[in-house]
Design brief:
Strand content: 15-25%
Distance between the termini: 36 Å
Number of helices: 14
Number of strands: 10
Amino acid sequence: MKSITIIRQSISMALSNIKSNKMRSFLTMLGIVIGVASVIGLITIVQSVTGSVMDQFESLGAGTLTINAQGTVLHHGLTDNDIAKIKAVDGVDAVSPSASTSGTAVYNNTVADAVTIQGKDAVYFQHNDDTIQSGRYFNAAEMTGETNVAIVDTDFISNVLGGTSALGTKFILNGYTYKVIGIKTNDSSVSSSSSSSDNDGTVIIPYKNVLKMSVAKNVSTLEVYYSDDVDSDELQTRLESVLKEIYEVTDDNEDEAFSIMNMESLMSTMSSIETMLSTMLGGIASIALLVGGIGIMNMMLVSVSERTKEIGLRKALGAEPSRIQMQFLIESITLSLMGGFIGIVLGLVIAAIGANLLDTTFKVSYGAILLGAGFSAGVGIIFGWMPAKRASALNPIDALRSE
């Protein structure tokens, strides 16, 4: 109980001394404030940006492998028989062929010649059930290439259909009459943001309809879906083996015939990059904390010099060296923690502003906050220990004689 009282008195005296030297205390804390704010601001911004990117990658296809198969001169793309072989690979839940092209859409007196046309399979919508905001998806019966149904986005509705109620509307696409059965959800994913700003909109139709439009026989893009208990790397190896047999290629020229994008491996790489960036930026920002720590040590040494008579008097009255040391150490830690608290608040404000400017989701990094608080406390202890030790080692007679 006595020790708690002593600590409370020491904190009170520390705050009193800091208050009596406002400007000097503020300038001393400034280094800590800048250092902590830099650590928290930079790390939080990095984690917010990478978190948003990771969310977009997940929306593109967590649990999905994407095969891009241009094929060879003798075997271009993937036939229905090739797709069946891939579907039969152990670990594959489903496959969804896709194709894309561009074209011209006509509605009433409006002609739009910059329309993106995407071809999808019914399986795609079963694994991406948030693709449309109203209407319905394609069904299996519409996958023959003979049914002209379409899902359109809001840009297409605005630029081509004149903003009318799109469901049930018929329009001409590359010479074929299509009926709108669904409206695509607006999103800000990587694939969506990569489209040109002068695009008149996007139309999704059955993939075989796209093949018919583009006079292509085979698809070159295939999305492979697998369950959570399947190892994506092992599945990729099995798919590569099947594709090598399909195209009769070796390891030397397989990249020319096909490639497989593993989203889980990509997200793992992104996570590693995020860790490295956070560590690097945290290390750079910690230099400011080091400077702030030196400032605290300098102030405490000056404080010891200015309060030599006080220290001698307290020792003469029976104050133990450990009590004197604790007094100056608590003063150093209090100063550092005050700067750390201000730095944490400032760092979060900077991170929020940065996330807003970068148009990304602001996410509080509690790890960065703990790091900043730990750093500020550590700086107070490490750089306050030497002045505190020096104060406790003063000879009371010499201290009283100094003035």
